[in-house]
Amino acid sequence: MKQSLSILIPVYCTDCHRLVTDLCLQAIHINDLKYEIIVADDGSPTPQTVNKSRVVADLPGVRYIERKKNVGRAAIRNFLAQEAQYEWLLFVDGDMSVTEDKFLSSYLHSDTQQVAYGGYVVGPGKEWCLRMKYERQCAPMHSATERRKRPYQHFHTSNFLIRRDLMLQHPFDERFRGYGYEDVFFGKQLRQAGITIDHPDNPLGFLDFEENARFIDKTEESLRTLYTFRDELRGYSQMLTVIEGLHPRMLLPLVRLWHRLFGSLERRNLCGECPSLTIFKLYKLGYYLTLKNQSIK
Asked: Is the pTM of this model over 0.70?
């Protein structure tokens, strides 16, 4: 059994009180475990969520840090790793939920020697919620069985265990300041370093879904990130694989034209009460190809 654990939770505009409380309760009841929970707010501009999260500092073994300036998803995780004191680090996204009573215990008793990603399960949501519909459709790909087939491409930051020394030797690339793909690139870094990623079936719950318009904004931001780092992410992005499989002289200009003519109508559907996953896929493809076309011009 692993004897010491630093649970690291980056948050941004998220109320993490329930998550931290549940993790704290599990840690307290594991005999002989040395633990700490460090929550770092990455410069949230929403006082209401910050105020709700501050109370976690009163829980045993919990430290709450407020960062005045937003540094991004990569840098905040590197900061947390530097603040941690124990041999094993467990990174948990602030919008996750604990759904299993033995969540921490499963990691501590695992055979993992380097890195493990436990996955997540998708909770219920409203039928008008695009994020929920999208995650439900993708859920079969997130099973432990599927993740093990491509262990580096299926790595995410929402729920992973790593030795502190490895994390400090191979930090997240802080060029990734915007939303998206810092975890994908981290998986590539681990592969290049010969570090093994295990994929146990030890999920957290994804139960908190943003509004449709916010999800589209984040999707667009992630596509801009993908375009910026497209050469380094080739082979690790399904979007890039799809684009490279299309005939460039015929289909790609048509998709760009479609997006230019109907992108605003597609976005209206995606932000409405009956969002279509087919339209969502077409919108993402058109948006990315428009970025590519603008760059060429």
From this structure: yes
